Amino acid sequence: MDLYGYTPETSIPVSFAIKQPGASHTTTYDDNTPGTIFNRHIEVNTDLPFHISGDYSMSAAGISRSCEVNGLTGNISDSNMDNMLANQQAAITPNAVVSYGFYDAGSGYDDISYTSHHQNYAYTGDGNRPDWMTKMVAGNSNAGTKPFSAFVLPGAHDAGMNTSQNIAEVVSNIKKYGFIATAIFGSLALVLGVAIGAIVTVLSIAASSLIERVIINLSITQKDTITNMLNLGTRYFDFRPGYNAKIQGIPVASGDGLYHQHNMIPGMAFTDFLNETVAWLKAHPGEIVVVSLGFSGFYDDAMKPDSETLKNAINTALAGSDIVYGGPADTSSSYNDLIAAKKRLLFLNNGVGFNDASKYDSYSDGAYATLTPDPILNQLKQMHTTPDSGDVYTVLQLQGTASAVSALWPSLAACTSDATSPLLMTKAYFDSTTYPWTEANLASFNSAYPVVILNDFVDPQMSHIAEDATLLRAGQL
Protein backbone atom coordinates (compact mmCIF):
# COMPACT_ATOMS: atom_id res chain seq x y z
CA MET A 1 0.00 0.00 0.00
CA ASP A 2 1.13 3.55 -0.77
CA LEU A 3 0.17 6.20 1.79
CA TYR A 4 0.08 9.96 1.21
CA GLY A 5 -0.70 12.65 3.75
CA TYR A 6 -0.68 16.44 3.94
CA THR A 7 -1.22 18.81 6.84
CA PRO A 8 -0.72 22.60 6.92
CA GLU A 9 -0.06 22.61 10.67
CA THR A 10 0.86 20.19 13.45
CA SER A 11 -2.52 20.57 15.18
CA ILE A 12 -4.31 18.62 12.43
CA PRO A 13 -2.06 15.63 11.70
CA VAL A 14 -2.81 12.70 9.42
CA SER A 15 -2.25 9.21 10.79
CA PHE A 16 -2.07 5.80 9.10
CA ALA A 17 -1.95 2.50 11.00
CA ILE A 18 -1.55 -1.20 10.24
CA LYS A 19 -1.99 -4.17 12.53
CA GLN A 20 -0.27 -7.01 10.73
CA PRO A 21 -1.97 -10.43 10.57
CA GLY A 22 -1.51 -12.18 13.91
CA ALA A 23 0.26 -9.19 15.49
CA SER A 24 -0.53 -7.99 18.99
CA HIS A 25 0.36 -4.36 18.31
CA THR A 26 -0.43 -1.68 15.73
CA THR A 27 2.25 0.25 13.83
CA THR A 28 1.37 3.90 13.26
CA TYR A 29 2.75 6.30 10.66
CA ASP A 30 2.06 9.95 11.44
CA ASP A 31 2.29 12.91 9.11
CA ASN A 32 2.92 15.86 11.41
CA THR A 33 5.36 17.80 9.24
CA PRO A 34 3.45 20.83 7.95
CA GLY A 35 3.53 21.89 4.32
CA THR A 36 4.89 18.78 2.62
CA ILE A 37 3.32 15.61 1.24
CA PHE A 38 4.11 12.62 3.42
CA ASN A 39 4.68 9.37 1.49
CA ARG A 40 5.19 5.88 2.86
CA HIS A 41 4.92 2.40 1.34
CA ILE A 42 3.84 -0.46 3.59
CA GLU A 43 3.33 -4.17 3.00
CA VAL A 44 0.69 -6.37 4.61
CA ASN A 45 2.32 -9.66 5.54
CA THR A 46 0.89 -13.14 6.11
CA ASP A 47 1.44 -15.79 8.73
CA LEU A 48 0.25 -18.82 6.78
CA PRO A 49 -1.73 -20.84 7.51
CA PHE A 50 -2.85 -19.04 10.66
CA HIS A 51 -3.21 -15.34 9.86
CA ILE A 52 -3.84 -13.73 6.50
CA SER A 53 -5.62 -10.38 6.88
CA GLY A 54 -4.30 -7.18 8.44
CA ASP A 55 -6.29 -4.30 9.91
CA TYR A 56 -5.58 -0.96 8.23
CA SER A 57 -6.86 2.48 9.24
CA MET A 58 -6.50 6.15 8.41
CA SER A 59 -7.49 9.11 10.58
CA ALA A 60 -7.41 12.84 9.97
CA ALA A 61 -9.22 15.90 11.32
CA GLY A 62 -11.55 13.83 13.46
CA ILE A 63 -12.58 11.26 10.86
CA SER A 64 -11.47 7.64 10.75
CA ARG A 65 -11.66 5.08 7.94
CA SER A 66 -10.55 1.46 7.90
CA CYS A 67 -10.46 -1.83 6.02
CA GLU A 68 -9.07 -5.33 6.16
CA VAL A 69 -6.34 -6.20 3.67
CA ASN A 70 -5.65 -9.79 2.69
CA GLY A 71 -1.88 -10.13 2.70
CA LEU A 72 -2.00 -13.06 0.27
CA THR A 73 -4.41 -11.81 -2.42
CA GLY A 74 -4.44 -8.08 -1.68
CA ASN A 75 -8.25 -8.13 -1.55
CA ILE A 76 -10.00 -5.44 0.49
CA SER A 77 -12.88 -6.28 2.83
CA ASP A 78 -14.88 -4.75 5.69
CA SER A 79 -14.11 -1.28 4.34
CA ASN A 80 -15.88 2.04 4.81
CA MET A 81 -13.96 3.69 1.96
CA ASP A 82 -14.50 1.14 -0.81
CA ASN A 83 -16.71 3.25 -3.08
CA MET A 84 -15.32 6.41 -4.67
CA LEU A 85 -18.70 8.15 -4.97
CA ALA A 86 -20.44 6.73 -1.90
CA ASN A 87 -17.97 6.90 0.99
CA GLN A 88 -14.92 8.95 -0.01
CA GLN A 89 -16.39 12.42 0.42
CA ALA A 90 -14.66 15.34 2.10
CA ALA A 91 -15.34 16.15 5.74
CA ILE A 92 -15.82 19.78 6.79
CA THR A 93 -15.53 20.79 10.46
CA PRO A 94 -15.23 24.23 12.11
CA ASN A 95 -11.50 23.80 12.74
CA ALA A 96 -10.33 21.69 9.80
CA VAL A 97 -11.28 20.14 6.48
CA VAL A 98 -10.09 16.84 5.04
CA SER A 99 -10.16 15.29 1.60
CA TYR A 100 -9.27 11.64 1.19
CA GLY A 101 -9.38 8.81 -1.31
CA PHE A 102 -8.70 5.09 -1.49
CA TYR A 103 -7.78 3.27 -4.70
CA ASP A 104 -8.33 -0.49 -4.78
CA ALA A 105 -5.61 -1.93 -7.01
CA GLY A 106 -7.32 -5.29 -7.40
CA SER A 107 -4.95 -7.60 -9.24
CA GLY A 108 -2.92 -4.55 -10.24
CA TYR A 109 -1.25 -3.37 -13.40
CA ASP A 110 2.38 -4.32 -13.08
CA ASP A 111 4.15 -2.22 -15.70
CA ILE A 112 4.83 0.44 -13.05
CA SER A 113 5.08 -0.67 -9.43
CA TYR A 114 2.71 1.86 -7.84
CA THR A 115 -0.19 0.83 -10.10
CA SER A 116 -0.27 -2.57 -8.39
CA HIS A 117 -0.44 -0.99 -4.93
CA HIS A 118 -3.52 0.14 -3.06
CA GLN A 119 -3.37 3.94 -2.71
CA ASN A 120 -4.68 5.93 0.25
CA TYR A 121 -4.34 9.69 0.60
CA ALA A 122 -5.62 12.14 3.20
CA TYR A 123 -5.03 15.89 2.92
CA THR A 124 -6.12 18.22 5.71
CA GLY A 125 -6.66 21.96 5.59
CA ASP A 126 -7.16 24.54 8.30
CA GLY A 127 -10.54 25.94 9.29
CA ASN A 128 -10.05 28.98 7.05
CA ARG A 129 -10.50 27.01 3.81
CA PRO A 130 -14.20 27.89 3.29
CA ASP A 131 -13.32 31.60 3.61
CA TRP A 132 -9.65 31.68 2.72
CA MET A 133 -9.90 34.78 0.51
CA THR A 134 -11.71 36.71 3.25
CA LYS A 135 -9.27 35.66 5.97
CA MET A 136 -6.21 36.20 3.76
CA VAL A 137 -7.16 39.79 2.90
CA ALA A 138 -8.12 40.54 6.51
CA GLY A 139 -4.61 39.59 7.60
CA ASN A 140 -2.80 41.12 4.60
CA SER A 141 -4.66 44.28 3.65
CA ASN A 142 -2.59 45.13 0.57
CA ALA A 143 -3.74 41.88 -1.08
CA GLY A 144 -7.22 43.38 -1.24
CA THR A 145 -6.03 46.45 -3.14
CA LYS A 146 -4.10 44.57 -5.83
CA PRO A 147 -5.80 43.54 -9.10
CA PHE A 148 -7.72 40.30 -8.74
CA SER A 149 -5.40 38.93 -11.42
CA ALA A 150 -2.80 38.47 -8.66
CA PHE A 151 -4.90 35.69 -7.18
CA VAL A 152 -4.06 32.05 -7.83
CA LEU A 153 -7.25 30.03 -8.13
CA PRO A 154 -7.52 26.35 -7.12
CA GLY A 155 -9.64 24.74 -9.83
CA ALA A 156 -11.85 21.70 -10.39
CA HIS A 157 -11.31 19.99 -13.74
CA ASP A 158 -14.60 18.79 -15.28
CA ALA A 159 -16.31 20.05 -12.14
CA GLY A 160 -19.77 18.69 -12.99
CA MET A 161 -18.59 15.10 -13.42
CA ASN A 162 -19.04 14.50 -9.69
CA THR A 163 -22.15 12.34 -9.87
CA SER A 164 -23.31 9.09 -11.43
CA GLN A 165 -26.98 10.09 -11.23
CA ASN A 166 -27.52 9.75 -15.00
CA ILE A 167 -25.20 6.83 -15.70
CA ALA A 168 -27.63 4.03 -14.80
CA GLU A 169 -30.01 5.32 -17.48
CA VAL A 170 -27.16 5.57 -19.98
CA VAL A 171 -26.32 1.93 -19.25
CA SER A 172 -29.97 0.93 -19.68
CA ASN A 173 -30.02 2.56 -23.11
CA ILE A 174 -26.73 0.90 -24.04
CA LYS A 175 -28.33 -2.46 -23.32
CA LYS A 176 -31.48 -1.46 -25.20
CA TYR A 177 -30.05 0.18 -28.32
CA GLY A 178 -27.03 -1.23 -30.12
CA PHE A 179 -26.38 2.05 -31.92
CA ILE A 180 -26.01 3.89 -28.59
CA ALA A 181 -23.52 1.25 -27.46
CA THR A 182 -21.62 1.69 -30.72
CA ALA A 183 -21.54 5.49 -30.33
CA ILE A 184 -20.43 5.51 -26.68
CA PHE A 185 -17.94 2.67 -26.89
CA GLY A 186 -16.79 3.90 -30.27
CA SER A 187 -15.63 7.08 -28.57
CA LEU A 188 -13.83 4.95 -26.00
CA ALA A 189 -12.23 2.88 -28.74
CA LEU A 190 -10.90 6.01 -30.43
CA VAL A 191 -9.32 7.09 -27.15
CA LEU A 192 -7.73 3.70 -26.60
CA GLY A 193 -6.75 3.07 -30.21
CA VAL A 194 -8.46 -0.32 -30.43
CA ALA A 195 -11.15 -1.75 -32.69
CA ILE A 196 -14.65 -0.38 -32.06
CA GLY A 197 -16.19 -3.76 -32.77
CA ALA A 198 -14.13 -5.47 -30.10
CA ILE A 199 -15.20 -3.07 -27.35
CA VAL A 200 -18.86 -3.04 -28.42
CA THR A 201 -18.96 -6.84 -28.57
CA VAL A 202 -17.47 -7.29 -25.11
CA LEU A 203 -19.23 -4.53 -23.18
CA SER A 204 -22.65 -4.73 -24.82
CA ILE A 205 -23.14 -8.23 -23.42
CA ALA A 206 -21.57 -7.47 -20.05
CA ALA A 207 -23.53 -7.07 -16.83
CA SER A 208 -25.00 -3.61 -16.30
CA SER A 209 -22.93 -3.17 -13.13
CA LEU A 210 -19.72 -3.74 -15.08
CA ILE A 211 -20.70 -1.29 -17.82
CA GLU A 212 -21.63 1.30 -15.20
CA ARG A 213 -18.26 0.85 -13.49
CA VAL A 214 -16.39 1.25 -16.79
CA ILE A 215 -18.28 4.48 -17.58
CA ILE A 216 -17.67 5.85 -14.08
CA ASN A 217 -13.98 5.05 -14.40
CA LEU A 218 -13.92 6.79 -17.77
CA SER A 219 -15.88 9.92 -16.92
CA ILE A 220 -15.99 10.80 -13.20
CA THR A 221 -13.35 13.39 -12.30
CA GLN A 222 -14.62 14.73 -8.96
CA LYS A 223 -16.19 12.98 -5.98
CA ASP A 224 -17.41 15.84 -3.81
CA THR A 225 -20.44 18.09 -3.96
CA ILE A 226 -19.96 21.61 -5.30
CA THR A 227 -20.52 22.91 -1.76
CA ASN A 228 -17.77 20.71 -0.37
CA MET A 229 -15.41 21.64 -3.20
CA LEU A 230 -15.98 25.29 -2.29
CA ASN A 231 -15.46 24.55 1.40
CA LEU A 232 -12.16 22.83 0.57
CA GLY A 233 -11.08 26.14 -1.00
CA THR A 234 -11.81 25.57 -4.70
CA ARG A 235 -12.52 28.86 -6.49
CA TYR A 236 -12.46 27.97 -10.20
CA PHE A 237 -14.85 25.55 -11.90
CA ASP A 238 -14.43 24.07 -15.36
CA PHE A 239 -18.08 23.38 -16.30
CA ARG A 240 -19.25 22.16 -19.70
CA PRO A 241 -23.04 22.61 -20.03
CA GLY A 242 -24.76 20.83 -22.89
CA TYR A 243 -27.89 19.01 -23.96
CA ASN A 244 -27.91 15.23 -23.73
CA ALA A 245 -26.61 13.67 -26.93
CA LYS A 246 -29.07 11.99 -29.27
CA ILE A 247 -28.09 8.96 -31.31
CA GLN A 248 -30.47 8.28 -34.21
CA GLY A 249 -33.02 10.45 -32.41
CA ILE A 250 -32.74 8.61 -29.08
CA PRO A 251 -31.21 10.55 -26.16
CA VAL A 252 -28.52 8.74 -24.20
CA ALA A 253 -30.38 9.86 -21.06
CA SER A 254 -33.66 11.66 -20.40
CA GLY A 255 -33.89 15.30 -19.47
CA ASP A 256 -34.10 18.23 -21.87
CA GLY A 257 -32.10 20.64 -19.71
CA LEU A 258 -28.37 21.29 -19.62
CA TYR A 259 -25.93 18.93 -17.94
CA HIS A 260 -22.18 18.85 -17.61
CA GLN A 261 -21.12 16.71 -20.57
CA HIS A 262 -18.08 14.44 -20.74
CA ASN A 263 -18.13 13.56 -24.44
CA MET A 264 -21.71 12.24 -24.28
CA ILE A 265 -21.88 11.13 -20.63
CA PRO A 266 -24.08 13.56 -18.64
CA GLY A 267 -23.14 14.64 -15.15
CA MET A 268 -24.55 17.35 -12.89
CA ALA A 269 -27.41 19.57 -14.09
CA PHE A 270 -26.26 23.11 -14.94
CA THR A 271 -29.08 24.69 -12.93
CA ASP A 272 -28.12 22.62 -9.88
CA PHE A 273 -24.50 23.75 -10.23
CA LEU A 274 -25.50 27.41 -10.47
CA ASN A 275 -28.01 27.24 -7.61
CA GLU A 276 -25.57 25.46 -5.31
CA THR A 277 -22.79 27.94 -6.12
CA VAL A 278 -25.00 31.00 -5.59
CA ALA A 279 -26.37 29.62 -2.32
CA TRP A 280 -22.82 29.09 -1.09
CA LEU A 281 -21.74 32.58 -2.18
CA LYS A 282 -24.64 34.11 -0.26
CA ALA A 283 -23.37 32.35 2.87
CA HIS A 284 -19.76 33.45 2.27
CA PRO A 285 -19.93 37.18 1.40
CA GLY A 286 -16.16 37.69 1.16
CA GLU A 287 -15.48 34.98 -1.43
CA ILE A 288 -15.25 35.20 -5.23
CA VAL A 289 -15.84 32.24 -7.56
CA VAL A 290 -14.68 32.01 -11.17
CA VAL A 291 -16.40 29.71 -13.69
CA SER A 292 -15.22 28.70 -17.14
CA LEU A 293 -18.05 27.49 -19.36
CA GLY A 294 -17.07 25.58 -22.49
CA PHE A 295 -17.96 22.77 -24.86
CA SER A 296 -14.63 20.96 -25.09
CA GLY A 297 -14.95 17.27 -25.91
CA PHE A 298 -18.64 17.31 -26.86
CA TYR A 299 -19.82 14.41 -29.01
CA ASP A 300 -21.46 16.76 -31.53
CA ASP A 301 -22.44 20.40 -32.02
CA ALA A 302 -26.15 19.72 -31.44
CA MET A 303 -25.34 19.43 -27.74
CA LYS A 304 -24.20 23.07 -27.52
CA PRO A 305 -26.65 25.66 -26.11
CA ASP A 306 -26.67 29.22 -27.38
CA SER A 307 -25.32 32.09 -25.31
CA GLU A 308 -28.77 33.45 -24.41
CA THR A 309 -29.79 30.12 -22.89
CA LEU A 310 -26.67 30.15 -20.73
CA LYS A 311 -27.12 33.76 -19.66
CA ASN A 312 -30.79 33.17 -18.81
CA ALA A 313 -29.80 30.25 -16.57
CA ILE A 314 -27.23 32.41 -14.79
CA ASN A 315 -29.65 35.31 -14.30
CA THR A 316 -32.33 32.96 -12.97
CA ALA A 317 -29.91 31.51 -10.42
CA LEU A 318 -28.84 35.00 -9.30
CA ALA A 319 -32.40 36.33 -9.00
CA GLY A 320 -33.18 37.26 -5.42
CA SER A 321 -29.53 37.62 -4.48
CA ASP A 322 -27.44 40.78 -4.54
CA ILE A 323 -24.66 39.01 -6.44
CA VAL A 324 -23.64 40.37 -9.85
CA TYR A 325 -21.81 38.28 -12.41
CA GLY A 326 -18.77 39.62 -14.22
CA GLY A 327 -16.26 38.72 -16.89
CA PRO A 328 -12.64 38.92 -18.07
CA ALA A 329 -12.29 42.69 -17.67
CA ASP A 330 -13.08 42.42 -13.98
CA THR A 331 -9.84 40.57 -13.23
CA SER A 332 -8.10 43.97 -13.44
CA SER A 333 -10.26 45.29 -10.59
CA SER A 334 -9.11 44.78 -7.02
CA TYR A 335 -10.58 42.19 -4.69
CA ASN A 336 -11.92 45.03 -2.51
CA ASP A 337 -13.64 46.71 -5.46
CA LEU A 338 -15.20 43.46 -6.66
CA ILE A 339 -16.56 42.73 -3.18
CA ALA A 340 -17.94 46.27 -2.91
CA ALA A 341 -19.62 45.93 -6.32
CA LYS A 342 -21.02 42.48 -5.38
CA LYS A 343 -19.24 41.01 -8.43
CA ARG A 344 -18.51 37.66 -6.87
CA LEU A 345 -19.28 35.26 -9.73
CA LEU A 346 -16.92 35.83 -12.65
CA PHE A 347 -17.11 33.97 -15.97
CA LEU A 348 -13.98 33.36 -18.04
CA ASN A 349 -15.63 31.31 -20.77
CA ASN A 350 -14.21 29.23 -23.58
CA GLY A 351 -16.03 29.83 -26.87
CA VAL A 352 -19.62 30.01 -25.62
CA GLY A 353 -20.45 33.44 -27.09
CA PHE A 354 -20.18 35.73 -24.06
CA ASN A 355 -17.48 36.60 -21.53
CA ASP A 356 -15.05 34.50 -23.55
CA ALA A 357 -11.45 34.56 -22.33
CA SER A 358 -8.69 32.82 -24.21
CA LYS A 359 -6.51 30.78 -21.85
CA TYR A 360 -2.86 29.79 -21.95
CA ASP A 361 -3.13 26.12 -21.03
CA SER A 362 -0.48 23.52 -20.20
CA TYR A 363 -2.62 20.62 -21.46
CA SER A 364 -1.75 18.42 -24.43
CA ASP A 365 -3.24 15.02 -25.28
CA GLY A 366 0.12 13.34 -25.67
CA ALA A 367 1.77 14.58 -22.48
CA TYR A 368 -1.20 14.04 -20.19
CA ALA A 369 -2.09 10.46 -21.26
CA THR A 370 0.43 9.06 -18.81
CA LEU A 371 0.89 6.90 -15.73
CA THR A 372 3.88 8.92 -14.53
CA PRO A 373 3.99 12.63 -13.65
CA ASP A 374 7.18 13.39 -15.57
CA PRO A 375 5.55 14.35 -18.91
CA ILE A 376 3.16 16.66 -17.06
CA LEU A 377 6.00 18.21 -15.10
CA ASN A 378 7.83 18.84 -18.37
CA GLN A 379 4.74 20.61 -19.74
CA LEU A 380 4.58 22.80 -16.65
CA LYS A 381 8.27 23.67 -16.90
CA GLN A 382 7.82 24.78 -20.51
CA MET A 383 5.08 27.29 -19.65
CA HIS A 384 5.97 30.95 -20.08
CA THR A 385 5.41 33.12 -17.04
CA THR A 386 3.45 35.58 -19.20
CA PRO A 387 0.64 34.16 -21.38
CA ASP A 388 0.89 34.27 -25.15
CA SER A 389 -0.47 37.36 -26.89
CA GLY A 390 -4.26 37.51 -26.65
CA ASP A 391 -4.54 35.05 -23.77
CA VAL A 392 -6.28 36.36 -20.67
CA TYR A 393 -5.13 33.88 -18.03
CA THR A 394 -2.97 30.82 -17.42
CA VAL A 395 -4.17 27.31 -16.59
CA LEU A 396 -1.73 24.80 -15.13
CA GLN A 397 -3.30 21.35 -15.33
CA LEU A 398 -2.00 18.92 -12.71
CA GLN A 399 -4.14 15.84 -13.38
CA GLY A 400 -3.29 13.12 -15.87
CA THR A 401 -5.66 11.29 -18.19
CA ALA A 402 -4.68 7.76 -17.21
CA SER A 403 -8.02 6.60 -18.63
CA ALA A 404 -6.45 7.13 -22.06
CA VAL A 405 -3.72 4.55 -21.37
CA SER A 406 -5.08 1.53 -23.24
CA ALA A 407 -3.08 -1.15 -21.40
CA LEU A 408 -4.87 -0.29 -18.15
CA TRP A 409 -8.37 -1.11 -19.25
CA PRO A 410 -8.44 -4.94 -19.27
CA SER A 411 -7.54 -5.10 -15.57
CA LEU A 412 -9.71 -2.13 -14.59
CA ALA A 413 -12.76 -3.35 -16.50
CA ALA A 414 -12.49 -6.78 -14.89
CA CYS A 415 -12.29 -5.44 -11.33
CA THR A 416 -15.38 -5.73 -9.13
CA SER A 417 -14.44 -2.85 -6.81
CA ASP A 418 -16.05 0.59 -6.93
CA ALA A 419 -12.75 2.29 -6.08
CA THR A 420 -10.79 1.46 -9.24
CA SER A 421 -10.81 4.75 -11.16
CA PRO A 422 -7.45 5.26 -12.90
CA LEU A 423 -7.68 8.94 -11.96
CA LEU A 424 -7.94 7.91 -8.31
CA MET A 425 -4.92 5.68 -8.83
CA THR A 426 -2.71 8.51 -10.11
CA LYS A 427 -4.08 11.33 -7.93
CA ALA A 428 -1.70 11.41 -4.95
CA TYR A 429 1.24 9.97 -6.88
CA PHE A 430 1.08 12.88 -9.33
CA ASP A 431 0.36 15.44 -6.59
CA SER A 432 3.57 14.51 -4.80
CA THR A 433 5.46 15.74 -7.88
CA THR A 434 3.30 18.56 -9.26
CA TYR A 435 2.39 20.29 -5.99
CA PRO A 436 5.99 21.01 -4.94
CA TRP A 437 6.61 22.45 -8.41
CA THR A 438 3.62 24.79 -8.15
CA GLU A 439 4.70 25.90 -4.67
CA ALA A 440 8.15 26.78 -5.98
CA ASN A 441 7.09 28.46 -9.24
CA LEU A 442 3.64 30.08 -9.05
CA ALA A 443 4.96 33.36 -7.70
CA SER A 444 7.10 33.83 -10.82
CA PHE A 445 4.06 34.01 -13.12
CA ASN A 446 3.05 37.51 -14.23
CA SER A 447 0.56 38.85 -11.67
CA ALA A 448 -1.26 40.83 -14.37
CA TYR A 449 -2.83 37.53 -15.42
CA PRO A 450 -4.78 35.16 -13.15
CA VAL A 451 -3.32 31.67 -12.72
CA VAL A 452 -5.44 28.56 -12.21
CA ILE A 453 -4.10 25.29 -10.81
CA LEU A 454 -6.49 22.63 -12.09
CA ASN A 455 -6.89 19.10 -10.78
CA ASP A 456 -9.19 16.11 -10.47
CA PHE A 457 -10.50 15.28 -6.99
CA VAL A 458 -9.84 18.74 -5.57
CA ASP A 459 -8.35 19.00 -2.08
CA PRO A 460 -7.48 21.61 0.56
CA GLN A 461 -3.75 21.56 -0.17
CA MET A 462 -4.51 23.29 -3.48
CA SER A 463 -5.99 26.30 -1.70
CA HIS A 464 -3.11 26.47 0.79
CA ILE A 465 -0.73 26.56 -2.18
CA ALA A 466 -2.90 29.17 -3.92
CA GLU A 467 -3.13 31.38 -0.85
CA ASP A 468 0.63 31.43 -0.29
CA ALA A 469 1.30 32.10 -3.98
CA THR A 470 -1.30 34.88 -4.06
CA LEU A 471 0.40 36.66 -1.17
CA LEU A 472 3.76 36.37 -2.92
CA ARG A 473 2.27 37.71 -6.17
CA ALA A 474 0.67 40.57 -4.24
CA GLY A 475 3.98 41.40 -2.58
CA GLN A 476 2.80 40.31 0.86
CA LEU A 477 5.37 37.60 1.62
Automatic annotation (TrEMBL):
<keyword id="KW-1133">Transmembrane helix</keyword>
<keyword id="KW-0472">Membrane</keyword>
<dbReference type="InterPro" id="IPR051057">
    <property type="entry name" value="PI-PLC_domain"/>
</dbReference>
<protein>
    <submittedName>
        <fullName>Uncharacterized protein</fullName>
    </submittedName>
</protein>
<feature type="transmembrane region" description="Helical">
    <location>
        <begin position="177"/>
        <end position="203"/>
    </location>
</feature>
<dbReference type="GO" id="GO:0006629">
    <property type="term" value="P:lipid metabolic process"/>
</dbReference>
<dbReference type="InterPro" id="IPR017946">
    <property type="entry name" value="PLC-like_Pdiesterase_TIM-brl"/>
</dbReference>
<dbReference type="GO" id="GO:0008081">
    <property type="term" value="F:phosphoric diester hydrolase activity"/>
</dbReference>
<keyword id="KW-0812">Transmembrane</keyword>
